[in-house]
Amino acid sequence: MNLLRLKYKFFFLIYTVVLILLAVLPINSSESAINNTNVVSIRLDYLLHFAVFIPWMFLLRRYSGVSFRADAGKAVLLLLAGIGFAVANEAVQYVLPYRAFNINDLVANSVGVVLGAGMFLR
User: Fold this and answer.
1) Which of 25, 34, 47, 90 is a Cys-bridge partner for 106, taking CB atoms 3.0 to 4.6 Å apart?
2) Is the dihedral of CA 41, 43, 44, 47 positive or negative?
3) Would the pLDDT of 91 be above 80?
4) At what angle do helices 3-24 and 72-95 cross, to 10 degrees?
5) pLDDT at 109
6) Region 9-34 average pLDDT
7) Sign of the torsion formed by the C-alpha atoms of 119, 121, 109 and 53
């Protein structure tokens, strides 16, 4: 594994741990300002869910070394893995008593993964 790919692996793992911690730690309540702020009539919370999965997908693709254009089969598997992680990230909140599952967050996570995959086609 070359040095650049090793760096992407490191950043991917750190970013993944941060996303998991954001999902399981009790850092956001329903009264939080982020839940009550709208940007073009979309809650800021949903935009952030969407935005954090774009770089995650980029790092996953760079770490895996899969070229989306050259290997469509592996690209689909990466996309499914990304959506699976996005779903799991939100689903874990369903079982935590201090967090709340929200289908809109799940959709925003998944759209972020799909857009992240689409933005970095190579």
Assistant:
1) 90
2) negative
3) yes
4) 30
5) 93
6) 81
7) negative
Residue with tokens 């699976």: 84
Sheet strands (E) in 15-97: 38-39, 42-43
Amino acid identity of residue 15, one-letter, is Y
Is the pLDDT reported for residue 57 higher than 70?
yes
71 DSSP 8-state letter = -
CB 93 within 8 A of CB 100: yes
Q: What is the pLDDT of residue 5?
A: 84
The DSSP call for residue 67 is: -
Identify any residues that bridge with 39 across adjacent strands, giving them in sequence order: 42
How far apart are the C-alpha atoms of 9 and 4, rounded to whole Å?
Answer: 9
Bridge partners for 38 per DSSP:
43
99 touches 23 (CB < 8 A)? yes
Name the region of 40 (left: φ>0; alpha: ψ -120 to 50; beta: rest).
left
Task: Give burial (CB, 10 Å; 0-12/13-18/19+) of 44.
Answer: middle
